[in-house]
Amino acid sequence: MCGIVGYIGHRDAYPIIINGLKRLEYRGYDSAGIALYDGTQIELAKTKGKVVDLEQRANGSISKKGTLGIGHTRWATHGVPNDANSHPHYSNSGELVIIHNGIIENYSSIKKELINRGYTFHSDTDTEVLVNLIEEIKKKESVKLGKAVQIALNQVVGAYAIAVFDKNKPNEIVVAKLGSPLAIGVGEDEFFIASDASPFIEFTNNAIYLEDEEMAIIRRGKDIKIRKIKNDKVVKPFVQELQLNIEQIEKGGYDHFMLKEIYEQPSVIKDTYRGRLLVDQGIIKLGGLEEYIPKFINADRIIIIACGTSWHAGLVAEYTFEDWARIPVEVEYASEFRYRNPVITEKDVVIAISQSGETADTLAAIKLAKKKGAFVYGICNVVGSTISRETHSGTYTHAGPEIGVASTKAFTTQITVLTMIALKLAHVKGTISKSDYMMHLHELDMIPTHVAAALKSNDKIKEIAKVFKDATNFLYLGRGYNFPVALEGALKLKEISYIHAEGYPAAEMKHGPIALIDEQMPVVVIAINSNHYGKVVSNIEEIKARKGKIIAVVTEGDTVVRELADYVMEVPKTPETLTPLVTTIPLQLLSYHIAVMLDRNVDQPRNLAKSVTVE
Ligand code: F6R
Question: What is the value of pTM for the model shown?
Answer without folding.
Answer: 0.81
